[in-house]
């Protein structure tokens, strides 16, 4: 099999299953692991897949580098972020998940707000650093240099020791049947733990993410208490979530 044919097959597998595993491809294609790794490296450089430990996954809108995402749809994100401020109450312990929409939300928190914010996003922590009445805790762990997020086992362990009154959950994909999904396994594990530790879970999400799905399952859609989205979203997209008991603000 020619290299071009092999790489085309790999891309087809990624498109079909959302991911590929090096040792599985080695057996299927009867080539060495080094050959598969070189293929994945070339495909990754071309922006066709994203390398992860042991294989590769489908490229995803949510996996664009932070610098590219921060200005994408910024006015839309700011508009819906303002709607979520109503859920803030004095002295809450709030988890603000990573993501550019949640960064917009952090900009809407009043300077006078008194409480505690825990986050895995250095950008959100810095954005709130001028809030004199706000305690800010940046979680421990390893910095993902591309997404600018703190992640890993140390991050999840720290979350287990905190009970949150409110969670602003970052969601890149949600579907009423497939639930909340994300493109990275570590991200899914972290969000699962945050949901367990939270009394009230909110997501602030642009309309294009509703009805979409990604690779790794986080939780059912009904794990959300509130979904905040855009005003012009069709009612038929929102009704299934309302029927699950989720408060939808749009």
TrEMBL record:
Domain (HTH deoR-type) spans: 3-58
Keyword annotations: DNA-binding, Transcription, Transcription regulation
The GO terms this record gives for MF are:
DNA binding; DNA-binding transcription factor activity
Pfam families, A to Z:
DeoRC, HTH_DeoR
Q: Which InterPro entries match?
A: Carb_Metab_HTH_regulators (IPR050313), DeoR-like_C (IPR014036), DeoR_HTH (IPR001034), NagB/RpiA_transferase-like (IPR037171), Tscrpt_reg_HTH_DeoR_CS (IPR018356), WH-like_DNA-bd_sf (IPR036388), WH_DNA-bd_sf (IPR036390)
Q: State whether keyword Nucleus applies.
A: no
> What is the name attached to this protein's record?
HTH deoR-type domain-containing protein
Instruction: Provide the species name.
Output: Enterococcus pallens ATCC BAA-351
* Classification lineage: Bacteria, Bacillati, Bacillota, Bacilli, Lactobacillales
